[in-house]
DNA sequence: TGCGGTTTTTACAACGTTTACCGATTCTGG
DNA sequence: CCAGAATCGGTAAACGTTGTAAAAACCGCA
């Protein structure tokens, strides 16, 4: 039993357009008419047809969030936060798992889900910053993370260089000198930006950086962290501290350390990045860089909605998410 | 620059209808025409307008997945799996976070997102089974989890009684006798069904069940597991094994045990339920009941699509997800 | 009462797609 | 080479909503 606008109109004894006006808060309506219509809507339990509205208005109040994988704790928490932030503003989030595949990312970019989506919040992995900036998308995009798009797209990100500097400096302040880094990567992505902060901190403390202590690994999951840690332990001179570029890597590293019978933080101190819940409850609990996720979600959504609202020509904005270093047991906190 | 069906038609030199026919795989089209149209579609990078199509067809190829919270690992993995399963079939999943609130669940049920959604996969928390069955929804629903809807809705779930029986029996086979349960709950939900299997196993082994060892707690997160474990340790006669009704509870319990300086599994053996990734990498790694998530996702989606396709009158189906007990370090595996 | 001006309501035409209904074209066999 | 069948393509009318523009109702004031 589908209820249409015309059903409501018939019931309220007014025209279809008047009902539409009531729904869309058109100002000039007598409170009497409004009440009548509201009552009819209640009685019939009417809900506007999203498709029809979207077709007519050219707006759907849907946005997409494109992330590599929803099952990864950081992205799961991000998705939850963005959904909440969007819901507050009456809009719905559609989550797109790109699985880090270039093809899927491209599809997100130009496919745009058949014009249903009003805009995208995009957390790219494979697609190069340049390519993203290049793509002439019909709809606004807000970028998340370190990758820049040649300065052409709005972006919301942690100051990863500063955050990594903070994390590394914390390890140095504990008296550690052989500090490894797990997750360094080539290109302009997360891995290379965080390495920059890491090296900067070492340099500031007068510690020469040892390439043997910088491990790239193949990914950003626990297994990659575990494998990298095994490599580090096999070195003639193993590290006394490790800065992992995300929490999953750190949790993997902790597992390897536990297996090796090493004590954390006494033998090796460990710092992560992201502040996912697993790290907070892990034993030992994980010292980590904590971006303000609510802030991030809220501003990313607000930024996108502002563009959608038509501020297409406004200057590009680049927002920095506040972060703190949560010192916990894995560094003796 | 919006491309419409008519643009494609003009380019290919055919009528709008023909293009539509090609897109919808209408059988009687010369391969020549088809090729021409395909080419035009390629060249113009045409994508059908989802709103218009959905308005006309009454179908959107969107389904919703309603879960309590996306950030919880089990649900994050579930969301990922369902999304994948749906994408394989060319349909898109919209994730709804109900946050366990009755209001949100109700909204999902009758709001139905303004008729955009073709159906729902629903993992209810607060809404009572009866209420769900009652609701005369316009669109099909597939239920996930223990809660039954008075036998009126299709459902996909693990045989929780059997699985809990298996888990408890495993602990008994290790020689444990004071086996606690964390997460027991009233009503007809997860907590009570799993308790049933737990008690059954105790009974089968001739162990009297001790109410002091059954903790309800307030939720299903790490903190709840940690708190419950603290209660158990405060007992005059603490348990030598704990069966937690999900992995998060178990991870919380492990944290408390570590803080108390107790050894797992020597002092206390721990079993969880869900097989989330955190448990696999935890130290000690977590013995747990592992439902076949791919199977679950695939069948839930298939079931829903079958209903959507019009098999509304077919008999209700109740599918049992295969599960295995993964024996790991937390029980000496 | 009648008039300008203002407020409130209405009719009609889109938005881009698919479907029902036909008319046109091609193919087959005699 | 033609009748009839099979195949293919075109026209027009929906789907439910909102924007435009115009009509109707109302107001106060002369």
Describe the 3D structure.
- Two copies of one chain form a homodimer.
- Chain A has 333 residues and is of the alpha/beta class.
- Helices cover 45% and strands 16% of the residues of chain A.
- The first copy, chain A, is built from 13 helices and twelve strands.
- In chain A, the strands form two sheets. Chain A has a six-stranded parallel beta sheet with strand order 2-1-3-4-5-11, with helices on both faces. In chain A, strands 7-6-8-9-10-12 form a six-stranded mixed beta sheet, with helices on both faces.
- In chain A, α8 crosses α9 (190-204).
- Chain A is elongated and about 85 Å long.
- The mean pLDDT of chain A is 90.
- At the A-B interface, α4, α5, β2, α6 and α10 of A face α4, α5, β2, α6 and α10 of B.
- Chain B binds a DNA duplex (30 and 30 nucleotides) through α2 and α4.
- Chains A, B: Keywords: DNA-binding, Transcription, Transcription regulation.
- Chains A, B: GO terms for molecular function: DNA binding.
- Chains A, B: Residues 3-57 form the HTH lacI-type domain.
Which features characterize this protein?
homodimer; 333 residues; alpha/beta; 6-stranded parallel beta sheet; 6-stranded mixed beta sheet; 13 helices; DNA-binding; Lambda_DNA-bd_dom_sf (chains A, B); HTH_LacI (chains A, B); transcription (chains A, B)
Question: Secondary-structure blueprint of this entry?
Answer:
Two copies of one chain form a homodimer.
Chain A (H helix, E strand, L loop, with lengths): L4 H8 L3 H8 L7 H14 L5 H8 L4 E6 L5 H16 L3 E6 L4 H14 L3 E4 L6 H6 L6 E4 L9 E5 L1 H14 L5 E4 L7 H15 L9 E2 L6 H12 L7 E4 L2 H13 L9 E5 L3 H5 L5 E5 L1 H16 L9 E4 L1 E4 L7
Parallel strand pairs in A: 1-2, 1-3, 3-4, 4-5, 5-11, 6-7, 6-8, 8-9, 9-10
Antiparallel strand pairs in A: 10-12
Chain B binds a DNA duplex (30 and 30 nucleotides) through α2 and α4.
GO molecular function (chains A, B): DNA binding
Organism (chains A, B): Kribbella lupini
Pfam families (chains A, B): LacI (PF00356), Peripla_BP_3 (PF13377)
């Amino acid at each position: 039993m589908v209820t249409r606008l015309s059903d409501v109109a018939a019931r309220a004894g007014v025209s279809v357009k008047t009902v539409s006006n009531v729904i869309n808060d058109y100002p000039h309506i007598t409170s009497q008419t409004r009440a009548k219509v509201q009552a009819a809507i209640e009685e019939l339990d009417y809900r506007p047809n999203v498709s029809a509205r979207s077709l007519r208005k050219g707006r759907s109040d849907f946005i997409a969030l494109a992330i590599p994988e929803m099952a990864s704790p950081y992205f799961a928490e991000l998705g939850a936060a963005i959904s909440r932030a969007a819901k507050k503003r009456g809009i719905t989030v559609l989550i797109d798992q790109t699985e880090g595949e270039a093809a899927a990312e491209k599809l997100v970019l130009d496919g745009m889900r058949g014009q249903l989506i009003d805009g995208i919040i995009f957390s790219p992995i494979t697609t190069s910053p340049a390519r993203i900036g290049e793509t002439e998308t019909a709809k606004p995009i807000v970028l998340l993370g370190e990758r820049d798009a040649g300065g052409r797209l709005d972006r919301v990100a942690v100051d990863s260089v500063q955050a990594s500097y903070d994390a590394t400096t914390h390890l140095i302040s504990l008296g550690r000198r052989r500090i490894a880094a797990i997750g360094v990567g080539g290109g302009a992505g997360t891995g290379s930006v965080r390495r920059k902060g890491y090296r900067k901190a070492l340099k500031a403390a007068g510690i020469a950086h040892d390439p043997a202590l910088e491990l790239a690994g193949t990914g950003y999951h626990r297994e990659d962290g575990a494998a990298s840690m095994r490599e580090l332990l096999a070195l003639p001179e193993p590290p006394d501290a490790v800065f992992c570029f995300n929490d999953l890597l750190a949790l993997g590293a902790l597992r390897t350390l536990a297996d090796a019978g090493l004590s954390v933080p006494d033998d090796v101190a460990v710092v992560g990045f992201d502040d996912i819940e697993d790290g907070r409850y892990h034993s030992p609990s994980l010292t980590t860089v904590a971006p303000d996720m609510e802030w991030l979600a809220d501003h990313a959504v607000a930024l996108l909605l502002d563009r959608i609202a038509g501020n297409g020509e406004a200057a590009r904005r680049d927002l920095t998410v506040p972060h703190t270093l949560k010192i916990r047991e894995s560094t003796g906190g």
